Protein 1
Amino acid sequence: MNRRLFIGSLGITSCALGMGSRAPSSPKYIFLMIGDGMGVAQREIAERYVRMKYPKRAGGLVMNQLPVHGVMTTHEITGGITDSAASGTALSCGIKTVNGAVCMGEDLKTACRPVAFDAQDVGMKVGIVTSVPVDHATPACFYAQVPKRGMYYEIDEQITPTGFDYFAGETLLGRKKAKGKASPTELIEQGGYQLVQDRAGFDALKPGDSKVVVEHDLGYAIDGKQEISLADLTQKGIELLDGDQGFFMMVEGGKIDWSGHANDLPTNIHETLAFDEAVAVAKEFCERHPDDSLLIVTADHETGGLMIEQDPAGLVTTIDAQEFRGQKYMNEVSNWKKSGSVTAEVAYNRLVNDFGLTDLSTEEAAHIQASVSQTISADAEDARAPEIQKMYGKKNAAVMSCQHALAGKAGAQWTSYKHTLVPVSVTAAGRYADRFAGDCDNTDIGKRLKELIQS
Ligand SMILES: [Zn+2]
């Protein structure tokens, strides 16, 4: 694959047009905000949680209050369920491709051009912001071209040649693949960028600073106060990028997807809320620049097949009972299993207590008891009952059965551990927001953004 040549040609194109200027008719400030795995149901249950938890607050999620609404299909090139790479490519380049491809066509050779470069061509500054590593599929689709999303190191090599002003996310995944090559730190420094990895360095960033890579683990919103949040990264992006020629900023809430795969509803809701706080920061900025800004909030696909079946009065109590992400409990269960120090009965009592499942039906209790006892006591996976194996695969059935019971108590149900084909919402505000109203496909977002920027 001729990656270097392609990047070289991108560089030439950028240089040739880079001193161009934005047409007065195009928006000066563009936010494209992507909740990874954030389907309609994820938005809706987070909305209900907020309305019930804060009854005096006007409205629910900020993203749901934007004036323009649309519905977007997300399938990959053959019509099947997409991954974040194929959908990210559609949102960024406006083309359909195969799963796993980051800004590459279905032949895995023909690269497409991320919209962020179109923005750079007309002089806009560019920011790539995420709550997961910036070399993960969704953010990578806004600056890199590789045939396989797992080529993290090759994605990292493409960060500084972009000349973009601000990258912010978690520890780069390419760090693990840098053996015998320049480390991502060296790549960043050799590329003339400033690498910021702690809060003090982050706080010290000020308007005028450019060519910055922030690499800091955000953790999960549910686990307690984050040292740096997605909203903080977004706010800092505004401070660094604001200027005469405006900016394009992509902001991704990446762990909505991860908690959807984990069927962990409270974590999912908290990640959606953390993403919404970033949307609030962008919206507040847009309101100060009403004639010049465009804010789009959407998703790359739905994850987990979340259904809302009823409207429980106790939604907030149910969700708040779980104080940490489900993985913490899974780690505990593995430790109990390894040490052999906790009986299945004690494990069951601890788990149902920690998940607030004190009013289970006899059937639910029996199911969780069986899941816990088989997880704790099984020497091998195949020692588990076929029903438990079928339902949970290799997942930790003890914790997963509690998470599913909690979701049920919250009036919801996870129907998949994977992505689904269910269309997602698009909401938008600001200049040309009406172009994102109604039904669309994910490729339309990339196409329309390119049209607006190039107009
Ligand atoms: Zn996913």
Protein 2
Amino acid sequence: MKKFLVTLALGATLAGTGFAMTEGVENEAVKARMMVMDGVKNATGALGAMAKGEMEFDADKAAEARQALIDHAAEIPAAFEAQEMDPKSTALPAIWENWADFEEKAKALGAAAEELDTSAVEWVQAGMGDLGGTCAACHKAYRVKKD
Ligand code: HEC
């Protein structure tokens, strides 16, 4: 339950950040992978807001967000494959030292999205913990901590 609440808080926070994260990023490949993550963030934010009741539940919108997550998860390996860096990037070199694991974690995100039942808000709520867990697992290993 605690994990679930944390995820909801994360979703709400992410939904509230409307600024462009790619501002000032020089490297085009880094910008492109940030855009993929931005898509992941937006879809997760929408699902989180619906799960929390901050956004009216809409099964079509939820299904769209789920599909966007599946699509973006599939884009992650190609977007990160080249070891590109930029001062604004929060990606860790460990990604390219543990490439197979990084790919596995991208797959886990896609799988959690696949498993999400978006037909009712209760099911979205039930699946958010697993979904959020896949973000956290990858960020913990492969992204600079921002806290
Ligand atoms: C397979 C690994 C992986 C998974 C899974 C993953 N992320 Fe990320 N994410 C990253 C990495 C690496 C970065 C840093 C990219 C950079 O700055 O170059 C990042 C960056 C971000 C950013 C900041 C975007 C930016 O401008 O850099 C957000 C927001 C984000 N992720 C949200 C999410 C959410 C929400 C989920 C889960 C639904 C998720 N991520 C799942 C690896 C992952």
